[in-house]
Amino acid sequence: MALIIFVIGGIFLQGLRKISEDPPYKGQRTRWGKRLEGEFVDEGWHFFLLYPFFDGFVPVKMERVTFKVVSEKTRTPDRADSKVPVSVTFRPDSSLLITYLNNGGEEGIKKQLEGMVMKRIREWASGNEEGPATWVELNQSQAEAASVLVRKIVGKHLTDIGDGPQQEVPTWIWLRYFSRPRPTKHSENEKIWADPDNSWKKVTDVIKKIEDAQPGSSTTLEKKVGERRKEISELQQGTARISLPDLGIILERLNLEDIDVLGEVAKVAESEAREEQERKAEDLELKFVRERIAELMLPPFNYDKGEARDIVQTERGKVVRAIKDNKISVDATTAEMVVAIMGRKP
User: What is the dihedral of CA 36, 38, 44, 50, to 10 degrees?
Assistant: First the structure.
């Protein structure tokens, strides 16, 4: 009897295992060394019969993984190189842990996402039909870049804007067209859609086709574009919950950070920015001078324009006013003569 209790107790103790809660883990269940699809155990103590031979588990860390993909030399059509950082956050999908592990776990997923992001960023930045024409436009195109990236990586898991004539217009153009207020400044690759007079004729022609095919469809399209915009915004803010079954993850953030131009172009840009700041400071100072002169010409001061200008220049330290105090020394005889002339006694 004691032997039976000893054996049972040994089996129990041998199969008792703890799944870590700090950091949080889940255990992908295994049977005879094979992973069981969709079966996992949460953090805490669990019993695995004849561990690890009959029942077992593979520990999977469930923490959010945040990393940065940096395209060190992204070249725009104007031949300028820029550094483009993209922030990515994901976490394992507990219902797809086998897929997650088959993709190499955390490190494998990071490498795959990095490759996809780098490839798409470079294609977009150097493209002639989409993307920025210059490094300046690249710095102003974060929303467009986010849209392009999102479509490349999670496109089939986003709101579908539908088939038909709407496919003649890039998604990022639909996002711009249905913005409120609609933008009036356009990048080079956007001008062919917006037109010089901001009429967006090519887009409105496509909308007419959509309406001719099915009346009311343009309203549905606008609603779907709005949903796509919301999804992109959530990805930028890190509040998204987009499942990527092929990778076994939940994508939470995909966002471009501050873009830096490199090399000689960066030096020129910095110099121009500094000159622009100095010019604005000078304009502000001159505005103050004009207002101060006008103030001094009004009651209760009532100075003329020249006097007011001199006072302001003195206040600004541009003019130094000196008061010269001359002391004259005279001898006693001269003093008596002066007093006599003035009719006073010394």
Answer: -10
37-93 pLDDT, tens digit per residue, is: 888 888 888 888 888 888 888 888 889 999 998 887 787 777 778 888 889 999 999
Q: Are 129 and 189 in contact (CB under 8 A)?
A: yes
With CA atoms as reference, report the closest residue to 114 among 71, 64, 61, 144. Answer: 71
Dist. CA 288–CA 306, nearest whole Å? 16
Strand partners, 84: 71
> Is residue 3 within 8 Å of 13, Cβ to Cβ?
no
Nearest C-alpha neighbor of 15 from the set 56, 51, 57: 51
The answer for residues whose C-beta is within 8 angstroms of residue 293's C-beta and 6 or more apart is 305, 308, 309, 312
Contact 123, 149 (CB under 8 A): no
**CA distances for 258 relative to 85, 142, 161, 236, 342, angstroms:** 7, 9, 29, 13, 84
User: What global pTM score does this model have?
Assistant: 0.66
Choose among 340, 277, 286: nearest CA to 312.
286
Quick one: which of 86, 62, 203 has its CA closest to 142? 86
Count H helices, E strands: the chain? 12, 10
d(CA 150, CA 143): 11
Distance (Å, rounded) from C-alpha 313 to C-alpha 285? Answer: 12
Beta bridge partner(s), residue 96:
none
Render pLDDT for 209-225 as a digit per residue (tens, 0 to 9).
999 888 888 899 999 99
Which structure tokens are listed for 187? 């990048």
What span, in angstroms and rounded, lies between the C-alpha atoms of 139 and 343? 87
Q: Is 238 exposed, middle or buried (0-12, 13-18, 19+ CB in 10 A)?
A: middle
